[in-house]
Design brief:
With about 90 residues, this protein is an all-alpha fold. The protein has one domain. About 75% of the residues lie in helices and about 0% in strands. The protein is built from three helices and no strands. Helix 1 packs across helix 2, helix 1 packs across helix 3 and helix 2 crosses helix 3.
C-alpha cells in the first residue's frame, strides 16, 4: 500500500477511534494519523492471528473490513497508551 493510502487509512481509523473512545484525547492531526497507522498494524496483526493462527506483523487493505480492523487496533492503541501514561504520571 502506498504512503498516501496509509495516511488516509490512518487518519480515518484514528479519527473514528478517538470519536468512539470515551473521554478527551489530546493531540492534533498528526497524532491522530500516527494513532491510526499504529492501530492498522495492531488490527492487521490480530486479523492474521485469528485467520491463520500465527502472529505476524501485517496491515489491512484499504477497504471497509480493513478500516474496521484499523479502528479496532486504534482503540487498543488508545487504551494501551493511556494505561501506560497514567502509570508514569
Amino acid at each position: 500500500m502506498n504512503i498516501i493510502a496509509w495516511i488516509v487509512l490512518g487518519l480515518l481509523a484514528g479519527a473514528i477511534a478517538k470519536a468512539i473512545y470515551p473521554g478527551h484525547q489530546g493531540g492534533g492531526i498528526l497524532a491522530t494519523i500516527l494513532l491510526g497507522i499504529v492501530g492498522a498494524f495492531i488490527g492487521g496483526s490480530i486479523g492474521v492471528l485469528l485467520t491463520t493462527g500465527r502472529l505476524a506483523l501485517a496491515a489491512p487493505t484499504f477497504s471497509l473490513p480493513g478500516l474496521a480492523l484499523a479502528v479496532l487496533g486504534a482503540l487498543i492503541a488508545i487504551f494501551l497508551w493511556y494505561s501506560f501514561a497514567r502509570r508514569t504520571v
